[in-house]
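Final report, results section. Input specification for complex C-07:
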Amino acid sequence: MSEKEVKNMEAIFDQKIANDEKIEPKDWMPEKYRKTHIRQISQHAHSEIVGMLPEGNWITRAPSLRRKVALLAKVQDEAGHGLYLYSACETLGISREELYNQLHSGKAKYSSIFNYPTITWADIGAIGWLVDGAAIINQVPLCSTSFGPYARAMVRVCKEESFHQRQGYEIMLTLCNGTPEQKEMAQDALNRWWWPSLMMFGPTDDESTHTEQSMKWKLKRKTNDELRQQFIDQTVPQAEILGITIPDKDLKWNEERGHYDFGKIDWDEFWQVVKGHGPCNKDRLETRVNAWEEGEWVRDAAMVYAEKQADRKVRKVS
Amino acid sequence: MSSKQKDSSFSENMIKYIYGIADNSLILGQRLGELTGHGPTLEVDIAMTNISLDLFGQVRSYFQYAAQISDKDVTEDDLAFLRTEREYLNVLLVEQPNKDFAYSIGRQFLFDHFHFILMTELQNSKDETLVAIAKKTIKEVSYHKRFSSDWVKRLGDGTEKSHQKMQTAIDDLWKYTDELFHTTEADEKMIEAGVGVDVKKLKEQYYKNVSEVLEEATLQVPDLKYFQKGGKNGIHSEHMGFILTEMQYMQRTFPGMKW
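Structure output:
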């Protein structure tokens, strides 16, 4: 392609984005757009499947049949999200195996929140309420992002996430209406999950490296700080209904701003976990790698069997 | 015997009969739940979690019904989580551990084929609730059976390694299949009443169906003289205590609370 042709393609591409038209896998796209999307969509897919682990941790111990069924369904939904996000990513010309390799080698990231341990049943409630709540705020704008397969996947993801969020809140509500022991369990979970949830929106705007370009491509509609504020404003009244206290002594309503002011986030902790030194980083990755390696003979068998079946079909026809 | 005594012995046997079916789904569902997030592929992970989900759904229907029949004030969760080990009446097969993927598939396969013919027959029960549960369950189980049979074929007729692993799993698990066709006293009472299924009569069909799949999978049908039994009378393997410890953890640690 000549330089002029590339320029022309770029102009068409930019126009499409400006017109809110979708970019589809077979459309021409700048290499940077492709790479950025592979990075973001795969990071999102990895987060879904790593996210299965802290919650899957409680499937065998769920306190009632109803909760067990709901938790199984939720973790299964996450696997489903992973599946269609990997598929969306594959349309950009990368294989699922390559994406897994990037995760397993530590090259690709996943949401840091899943590097915290789930140590009580209330953590399952808190994750639904706070972590899925934060995820929805991050993800709703993506339903209208420019890359078609991603946008369509996100429509379904968001519907299911919003169901998970209500489910998590309902677990918290049941605990808070239960015995003092149960309420204490809920408070303890909020204490541990609050700050990591705020960190889910990423570094502050002045430290965020991808914002400007992502805004242009509609991968982002609001900045990290705006989304974080939205989450806090939405969550504080929910905690009040539960009757538990958000662990931030600086949290208070600011009449002038029309928002809650909040305390300082421990960014050292954030970077420590992002860099691989959180409480569960090593375990999570090891678990994924083990599942993949131990499954190798199974995948090999399935491939060989499929080849044999195809051969048999050919022989039958001829 | 007064009619009240007669009724209470009927409902006692009925509840035991329900345990005999429901506990299989409960313990197998629990075993499958251990695998969520650890599957060899994402698709397999989703499928096996889904099977677990189906099994727990069935458990809820059975235990809600058993709780209703019981003259004690109990809930589905009391029945699922608060019995002692000797009171669980599942077969030994379903409590066997997830040693590797071939074992998990082998266990599923040997159970699904039984479950399918049991649910087919249970639809002829004189008990309307059991009929309704069986009608819903059979749809799920026919999918489970297809899933596990397909994997037995893939692994059996796949690579040399997978063939060997699948054969070992079937050889090791085969000794638990005979118990599927045993009946307890409660089972016999329910069969007499036209409520229960006489599983003794399903044995031949079961081995025929299972053998067909194994042959297609290029696997040997084991020829065993000695089998294991006990689960149906509450005498379990050493695995069972650990399964229950985990499953009952919350209910035992925080007695009497709502979740």
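The first helix of chain B runs from residue 3 to 33. Residues 24 and 243 of chain B are 13 Å apart (CA to CA). This concludes the modelling results for the funded period.
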